[in-house]
Amino acid sequence: MPKGIISKAITTLIALVWFVNGLFCKVLNYVPRHQEIVSEILGVTYAAPLTTAIGISEVIMAIWVISGFKSRMNAILQITIICAMNFLEFLLVPGLLLWGRWNAFFALVFVGLIYYNEFVLKKQSRP
After folding, report:
1. Using an 8 Å Cβ cutoff, are 1 and 10 in contact?
2. pLDDT tens-digit readout, 93-115
3. How far is it, in rounded angstroms, from Cα 119 to Cα 55?
4. Does the pTM exceed 0.90?
């Protein structure tokens, strides 16, 4: 399978992760644990609107990923956000995470996929 097709499939997968986590888990609150995490870290007073804002930001990230606009800057931003968010959650609320401290492992796998897609696959498929 050509590397360009693989890269497009991975890009779609990455965008879907952002979209599902943003819209369904946070904006529509189908996974209340996300609001609990925000509440524990940032306080209960504004947890609901902040969780919604984070979810909307994730939906926007999904759109940006699919658009391909400034994809390297996008990949660096994704990696930075994922690492920062998971570092904070690892330290502050490991008991609220789906897989506890193992969430950090899955986050690193996702970061690796983003890096590989942007800085290895896309580089190889460019003329």
Report:
1. no
2. 999 998 889 999 999 999 999 99
3. 26
4. yes
